[in-house]
Amino acid sequence: MKEGQDNILSASSPRMGNRFTRWLGRLVLRSMGWQMVGKLPAEKKLIIVGMPHTSNWDFILAMACLQSVGLKVSFMMKREAFVWPLSTLFRYLGGVPIDRSAQGNVTSQMVNWFDRNENVWLGLTPEGTRSKVSEYKKGYLRISKAAGVPIALIGIDARSKEVVLHEKKCEYTGANNDEDNAAIKSFVDANFFGINPENQ
């Protein structure tokens, strides 16, 4: 399935952009030599987990993919960054202001955000850094379980220059975040290959 094809998304996927931004996203993808394969779940609320995050190029690649199909994926940002006039741009792109001074409260803030919105997808990179990590941060699992929102995996495979979309959603309801987290990391390490593999 090539980039920009409408059947990557469903009627329930949150949208943004227009014909020009989709054309621009496809142009950037083609110039980089990448394509998207697969399909995303038909869900009104979803947590998109993108891995492995090993390079600054990951952000450019992700934005090109989103723009190419007109998909809106929200992301968390420090509340302090939402200062006019940039606040309008950040919100349009999907930025969600987070008060990080409230220790341990990020999960509840995101649960409230999901409750307030009918059709939103949240994107996260659980490594929390481009450097090599032995385990992922588990915030994405805490948010998923507390909000009752499924997870979908998007993997970067630099060997084939493919961004792989997984239609099968992951629903974790158990209490053992360590086991769930380790299982996801093992799957990613076995199936995907970062742009800078030494950081994976």
TrEMBL record:
Keyword terms, alphabetized? Acyltransferase, Transferase
Tell me the InterPro entries matching this sequence. Plipid/glycerol_acylTrfase
- Copy the pathway line from the protein's UniProt record: Lipid metabolism
- Superkingdom field: Bacteria
Gene Ontology biological process terms in this record: phosphatidic acid biosynthetic process
User: Which PANTHER family does the UniProt entry name for this protein?
Assistant: 1-ACYL-SN-GLYCEROL-3-PHOSPHATE ACYLTRANSFERASE (PTHR10434), PHOSPHOLIPID_GLYCEROL ACYLTRANSFERASE DOMAIN-CONTAINING PROTEIN (PTHR10434:SF9)
- Protein name, please? Acyltransferase
Source species: Parasphingorhabdus marina DSM 22363
- Top-level taxonomy: Bacteria, Pseudomonadati, Pseudomonadota, Alphaproteobacteria, Sphingomonadales
